[in-house]
Request: fold
Amino acid sequence: MKLRTVGWSLLGLVVAVVAAGAIVVAKDRPGPGTPDGLLATMQQLDTNTRAAGDAIAARNWPLVAELADRLNHHVEPPLGQKLRVMLWLRTQAPNFRGYDGKLRTAAVAMGAAAKAGDGQAVSASYAQLQSACTGCHEKYQAAYVAHFQGGK
Ligand code: HEC
Reply:
């Protein structure tokens, strides 16, 4: 009798742990149409890229430098989502990450040029930044949306 009670308690514990695990997984997996981690990154990049364009037009170099820093250290998607994206990309993963690398390199160059007050170099690196965005979008955005959001 006593052993059976212990058995049931253990079973209850296992069920509770599995259920808690399922909730964690479910929470990490955004439903269709929900802005997920990557989208949050993109929205941040979009806001800061536009703001940098305005700041360049206004020749506000301190602001350009600050925005360049934010573009370089943009928010990262949660680890679980990164893993899902990498599993989906498989052999393409290094290429995908390469665009992020180009983005960061351009942002660093833009920050340095802004600090030096070199408008020409700022514009050149801003163009490189945008070509990193466009390059990745042309190659992956549509397929990403089709795969993760069912073509939203
Ligand atoms: C490494 C690849 C990559 C780079 C680099 C990249 N993006 Fe994206 N971007 C994506 C993917 C994938 C999506 C689709 C995400 C989605 O719809 O959930 C996307 C979507 C977007 C969207 C659309 C969001 C929406 O509401 O549907 C915007 C805006 C955007 N990116 C801005 C930028 C800007 C600005 C940059 C450069 C500063 C940039 N991205 C760089 C991969 C990238």
